[in-house]
Amino acid sequence: MKILGIETSCDETAAAVVEDGRKVMSNIIASQVDIHARYGGVVPEVASRQHVIHVTPTVAEALEVGGVTMKELDAVAVTYGPGLAGSLLVGLNFAKALAFSLGIPLLCMNHLEGHIYSAWLQRDGDGAPDPEREPGFPFLCLIASGGHTDLVEMEAHGRYRLLGRTRDDAAGEAFDKAARILGLGFPGGPEIQRVSGGALGKEALPRAWLKDSHDFSFSGVKTALLHKAQDRGIYPPPGELEGADMEREVREMASAFQESVVDVMVSKTLEAAEKRGARGIILGGGVTANALLRERMVQQSGLPVLIPPPILCTDNGAMMAACGYQHLIRGHSSSFDLDVDPSLSLE
Ligand code: KG4
Ligand code: ZN
Predict the structure, then answer these.
(1) Is this prediction's pTM over 0.85?
(2) Going by C-beta distance under 8 Å and a sequence separation of 6 or more, which residues neighbour residue 289?
(3) N or C: fewer beta carbons within 10 Å in the chain?
(4) What is the DSSP letter of 130?
(5) How many folded domains does the chain comprise?
């Protein structure tokens, strides 16, 4: 069964073809990052207009690379929330028109559920077993992106329990703001990772443990970073320091920030997994592309950790197609009068 997945919830126009919910036949992503970088963040109206420009060629390329004709498609899966309304509308309407004209099911999917289903995707020659069989449910999922930091228990396909969420900034948002404080580019996560290298911060930044809760909070560490950056002459950019001194300070502060955020995410994920008796851990969302987070989670977990390759952690169409497949084989499909839902949640 071949499903086309379309994803336009934020600033990537993405389309992919996935066979039988697991085999990635193509995965095309038209990034708008260079455009939004000029503004230091995603500008919603610019994003939706870029989707209008790129959605048709991106879908055409996904079909071509996948070696699949439109007539061979069994369904179209698309994100209808959460995300930016204007961006979601472009993908949703495109998917509706395509499914309608081909007379095939329309599968309107939750973006967060899509991030979880990235763990089901196989790449070339990757014979990884179906997570449902090995290690099997229940899973403890950490979804960390630009808009979410959720700890979700997945008891079975379609059965989710939200255990914890961020009380202020999402992890990705915190990375993006920290990068801005340090005078680094957008998006901040990859930039913080790049400049941190193997550096260890001289001083640690605080961690918000929020004892007895699975929730997160990242605004404290961001404020602590801001104050230290001001003290050390890094903020406001371009800063008072110069050359190698500046580089060293930025490296150490970025590293201390990354350490703090990763430490909290790893500890709280493992704690929740143990409490709920999970059989495996699933990571999804842009922040889980972070190398330190991936390394630490695997090192510290006694359970199998399912981590998609970085390109399938950030927003993509393949995860939406994989998600759509699981709904389709359970007899689900969506109505053609469905609207976008910018604040859709998983429960
Ligand atoms: O899932 P995603 O691609 O889009 C949303 O659904 O939000 O996540 C984007 C977020 C951005 O905040 C970006 O800075 C962060 O993921 N990110 C990273 C890394 N790569 C992307 N954060 C930390 N380390 C990375 N390597
Ligand atoms: Zn996402």
Answers:
(1) yes
(2) 189, 190, 310, 313, 314
(3) C
(4) P
(5) 2
- Tens of pLDDT, residues 216-246: 999 999 999 999 999 999 999 888 888 999 9
Tell me, in angstroms, the distance from the centre of ligand 2 to residue 144's CA. Answer: 8
The contacts of residue 193 (CB under 8 Å, 6+ apart) are 258, 290, 291, 292
Q: Over range 134-148, report the average pLDDT.
A: 97
Distance CA 31, CA 274 (A): 37
Please give all residues whose beta carbon lies within 6 A of any atom in ligand 1, as ranges.
10, 145-147, 172, 175-176, 187-190, 193, 285-287, 289-290, 314-315
Domain CATH code at residue 39 = 3.30.420.40
Please tell me the predicted confidence (pLDDT) of residue 198.
73
Domain check: are 294 and 149 in the same one?
yes
Q: Which ligand is nearest to the CA of 171?
A: 1
Distance (Å) of CA 203 to CA 82, 206, 291:
37, 10, 21
Same domain membership, residue 150 and residue 191: yes
Q: Average of pLDDT values for 326-345?
A: 98
Residues with CB under 5 A from ligand 2 (ion): 145, 315
